[in-house]
Amino acid sequence: MEEPKRRRFRPFRASRAPRPPVSAAEVAATPARPRSRGIYILPNAFTTANLFAGFYAIVQAMNGRFEAAAVAIFVAMVLDSLDGRVARLTNTQSAFGEQYDSMSDMVSFGAAPALIVYEWSLRGMGKLGWLAAFVYCAGAALRLARFNANIGVVDKRYFQGLPSPAAAALVAGLVWIATDLRETRWIDATGTDLRWLAWAITLYAGVTMVSNAPFYSFKDLNLKKSVPYMAVPLIVLAFVLVSSDPPIVLFSLFLVYAVSGYVVWFWRWRAGRGTTPPTAPPN
Predict the structure, then answer these.
(1) By the 8 A CB rule, do 116 and 175 touch?
(2) What CA–CA distance (Å, rounded) separates 246 from 261?
(3) pLDDT of 62 above 50
(4) What per-residue confidence (pLDDT) applies to 5?
């Protein structure tokens, strides 16, 4: 006959006394944990590639290869749009990455386009030429500084002023389309012949960057949400259009975008005037 199993009894443990609350003085006296000095490789690699593309554009402009310089600006735009998204997807955002991205954008979308358009067209205009290039460069610096200072304050659906990548695409797109059309014998005009057009677009881009005109940011588009089937053929059509003639299509798109902010601004102003309550007639 088997013996009954014995029950095991755990020894009684006294309950722990609750810890006294920590005072504010003790919290202040506790040394803060040092922040990690490491940086994340993946998003900063895209930022470095963005910086390299901007520097490459400057070098090519100094060597007289303006088409390659303009294409490098558009490559920098693609890389700049990827570093932030990669950081959010991999949860590798950092204050260092934000500052590094701003410094890279200043080179790729501030100094590089100003130097490209100056070497291509504005050099022969003397003081008017380099002043227009400086206005653009200063506008890009002010635009980036205001963007960093207003994060979390302004409406995320709209940018305050023309974004510096779009301004760079407008200036570099003019250089690219004029160079491409001249090589394909559609036009015979050189950068010097188009100096007043280049001067006007450079000045317009620089001033619009520091304006208060609202430009749609496309940040409220949910890419994870399902879309109708017709969206896929539209995406294919967009790729076909851009591939058919990249200089003309890209410059036209960014030209329309650079004007859209003032259209929205004027529409809001008209809508605000229309909703103003009428004054009461005098008795």
Answers:
(1) yes
(2) 23
(3) yes
(4) 55
Helix (H) or strand (E) holding 134: helix 127-149
Q: How confident is the model at residue 105 (pLDDT cuts 50, 70, 90)?
A: very high
Is 0.90 topped by the overall pTM?
no
- Output the six-digit token pair for 208: 């619009």
Which residue type, as a one-letter code, is found at position 263?
V
Alpha-carbon span 120 to 150, nearest angstrom? 35
Distances (CA, A) of 92 to 43, 125, 148, 275: 7, 46, 18, 46
Helices assigned H by DSSP within 188-230: 195-209
Give CA–CA dist 113/127, Å, rounded: 18
- Give the CA distances from residue 243 to residues 37, 58, 231, in Å, rounded to whole numbers and listed in that order: 44, 25, 18
Query: Taking a C-beta distance cutoff of 8 angstroms, is the pair 94, 40 a contact?
Result: yes
Does pLDDT of 36 surpass 50?
no
d(CA 267, CA 283): 35
Residue holding tokens 């060597």? 63
Residues 6+ apart with CB under 8 A from 103: 51
Q: Give per-residue pLDDT as tens, 67-92.
A: 999 999 999 999 998 888 888 888 88
Q: Say yes or no to pLDDT of 28 above 70.
A: no
Could you give the count of Cα atoms lying within 13 Å of 40 in the half-sphere of its Cβ? 22
Hey, which residues does 136 pair with through a beta bridge? none
> Quick check: 217 and 158 in contact, CB under 8 A?
yes
**At what angle are helices 246-274 and 195-209 packed, to 10 degrees?**
50
Choice between 12 and 226, residue whose per-residue pLDDT is larger? 226
State yes or no: pLDDT of 190 exceeds 70.
yes
**CB 205, CB 171: distance < 8 Å:** yes
Structure-token match 């102003």, residue found: 269
Tokens of 229: 């089937």
Q: Rounded to the nearest 5°, which phi and psi values hold at 143?
A: -65, -45
